[in-house]
Amino acid sequence: MFSFVAFLCPCWMAGVTANPHDSRVDEVNMMIGSDGAHDTEYGGTTPAVGVPFGMTQWCAATRINGISRTMYHYHDTTFIGFMGTHQPAIWMGDYGFMTFMPQSGELKVKAEDRKAPMDHGQETATPYYYKLSYSAGDGKGMITTEMTATSRASYFHVTYPQAGKALLYLEAGREKDGGAIWIYPEKREVHIYNRERHDAHLGPALPGFKGYYVLKFSADFSGYGICKDAEVHTGAVQAEGSTVGGYVEFPAGTVEVDLRIGSSFIGFAQAEENLSKEIPRRASLASVARKVKKEWEEKLSKIELEGADESDRAIFYTAFFRTLQYPREFSEYGRYYSPFDDKIHHGVSYNAYSLWDTFRAEHPWLQLMAPERVDGMVQALVQMYEEGGWIPKWPNPTYTNIMIGTHADAVIADAYINGFRGYDVEKAYEAIRKDAYVPPAGDSIHRWGDREWWNGSYEARGGLSHYLKKGYVADNRTNESVARTLEFALGDYCIAQMAKALGKTADYEDLMRRSKNYRHLYNPKTKLFHARNEDGTWAGEHSGFTEGANWTYQFCVMQDPQGLVDLMGGNAEFAKALDYVFDHGHYRHDNEPGHHYVYLYNYCGRFDKTQERIPQILDTHYQNRPDGLSGNDDCGQMSAWYLFSSLGFYPVTPASGEYALGIPRFSSARIELPGKKTLVVRASGGQKGKASLPVIRFNGKTLDAPFLPIKELLKGGVLEFLPAGS
Fold it and tell me: Do 725 and 684 form a contact (C-beta atoms < 8 A)?
């Protein structure tokens, strides 16, 4: 088993780390998902440190990051510094970041020159504390850096070797937009801002955007300077540009240096305030790490397992940890910078919504495990609508036109149906209704290619113009037409449920009619969904999809499973088609469109197949090792699927108010629900992966079908899965 918990940490850290069996957070394996054979199609996770939903994460960097490239990969053999990062997923970019690297001896500026050997044997990684030792070079000994981080601040303790200069290099900018640096020797401070956005070409210009950092050191500076375009200017204290940084040198004999960093998107004064609130001067690394550990422990201890071995527990609590990182906080003590109107506002905000992925399981999971965050996350989406004109599909931090559909519709409607009301409900409905009824500007002339460079218009539901006329997106007019049609129909269903609850009957009836639009693309000859042109003719057999093909999208009708069963010829034919997908390599759990497929057996009378296949998926795609995730975690979606499925229930249809049932992985799980309610899930026999437990009782009553209303489950009680005849 891979474990990077600091069992042999210094004595002054005693009480911060512990035996993992005494603490859920110490069972987290930070390296799961950090490695894979393909450089982008793997877990894409990093051992970044921070609090739940923290604004700025801090991570060791083994490479220069960018779109489809995170700053840390377990397979890398060298290390280039520590990053303050906002990169939410491997296939998204970073923004407003900074990097620094403790060095000894000769100053080295370029990443290629300053890299040091990366030895995982010298690495300790937990959600609340990270430590790395690496060679100072030229036989001078080792440099050891330890760190912890809160939401908007971080604490580093650097130990230098006795011999050689004690240096610390600071990178403020490395690309076109660059950054700036100010060194204040008399205050032992450095101020940095970074203007870079890797995804800038995918969204509107943001003249006011900056990531701000205030760095406060415990030691005097005996030397300092500016690095610009790889040239070092000793004694200089300020610089701005595309490739810019600086360095500080500590007096001879300095062995230990503490560094506290505050971050902000509002300004340096706010960064300093954030630092003083979260890591005041009197704090120590140990005291901050204990506080961060406590925050994680309070969250992760909401679920206790029985019948799980050491590896199972590592996988489970690592997945739980991953689901509590996004969406991330974007407000700073009552104010926030909006990347949608480039202004400062009062209120609470979040960012990093991977909505095409996370509407499926991640957001429903947060309703259970972080209900105190849900209203704020919905309100943040509403604010984006008010400030930019639309709810974004993938804010990073502003519009990016990445992926298709408007799945904030599902997130908002699902939250409303499940009882969340702490946001502007009417404005939220107005925003998602606009998604359904207003085509984006330029819809008649743009094909809306994925990751298309910003053309001055937010994509929203690209292709909606024709969808409103004919009931499907025309393949000869818009890219990814089949996938768009299916996802628009799902969005229509979700909005309809909120419309019905709000008494908006006309909208409800119209949107429910539209939720059946998937039927227009079903080809009865092939029994698959195919693209159609504007004139109604069938387009190419493989046209119209994103991240998949016909079989990948064959069952993407979560809003109307029974209608799809009927369309495909009834229960037997539907089950046969599902079997074909699973048995012939068309099911790709490493990507999201099929995440609900295994639960569709529930809708055609083959619950036995649901229970048979779930353990196989869990065993194949989730393992306790660095390459233990088969696909990108995508801001918690892969992890949330694992958690729901290992507990025995899953939210197939957003805004339906219903869970589909599966089979628990463990003999017992005790779950703390919102409102201090408790749910106990039991599986008879305690055999992990048992293939058949068809009798289900909830609070002593045997269920007639493998479904359970969410409102009933939230009341708590006992959910039991039993053998036939029980």
Answer: no
Instruction: Write the CA distances from 135 to 5, 99, 143, integer angstroms.
Output: 22, 19, 6
Structure tokens at 499: 């419309």
pTM: 0.96
Q: Is 45 helix (H, G, I), strand (E, B) or coil?
A: coil
637-647 and 310-323 helices cross at what angle (nearest 10)?
130
No. of helices (H) and no. of strands (E), the chain: 17, 31
Burial class (CB in 10 A: 0-12, 13-18, 19+), 88: buried
Rounded to the nearest 5°, which phi and psi values hold at 126? Answer: -135, 170
Q: How many CA atoms lie within 13 A of 252 on its CB side?
A: 2
> In sequence order, what are the residues at sequence separation of 6 or more whose Cβ sits closer than 8 angstroms to the Cβ of residue 278?
150, 151, 152, 153, 262
Encoding tokens for residue 2? 């891979």
Token pair of 688, please?
A: 């992990």
Pairing of strands 717-722, 677-683: parallel
Q: Where do the structural domains in the chain lie, given as residue ranges?
A: 11-267
* Separation of alpha carbons 249 and 223, rounded Å: 5
pLDDT in tens, 97-120: 999 999 999 999 999 999 999 999
CATH of domain 11-267: 2.70.98.10
Q: CA–CA distance from 678 to each of 5, 301, 368, 415, 713 (Å)?
A: 30, 13, 11, 20, 10
Q: Please write the tens of the pLDDT for every residue from 409-467.
A: 999 999 999 999 999 999 999 999 999 999 999 999 999 988 889 988 899 999 999 99
Residue 669 tokens, joined: 């799980």
Residues 491 and 338: their CA atoms lie apart, in Å, by: 26
User: Burial level of 18, CB count in 10 A (0-12/13-18/19+)?
Assistant: middle
316: number of Cβ within 10 Å: 27
Structure tokens at 454: 């910003």
The answer, yes or no, to whether residue 2 has pLDDT greater than 80, is no
CA distance 328 to 147: 20
Q: Are 663 and 350 in contact (CB under 8 A)?
A: no
Q: Where are the beta strands (DSSP E) in 403-556?
A: 522-523, 528-529
Separation between Cα atoms, residue 261 and residue 231, nearest integer Å: 26
Give Cα 327 to chain centroid, integer Å. Answer: 7
Tokens of 654: 């957003």
State percent of the chain over pLDDT 90.
90
First-residue to last-residue Cα distance in the chain: 37
What is the strand order of the sheet 717-722 is part of?
A: 303-306, 668-673, 677-683, 717-722, 695-698, 701-702
Beta-carbon contacts of residue 125 (< 8 Å; ≥ 6 apart): 4, 30, 31, 47
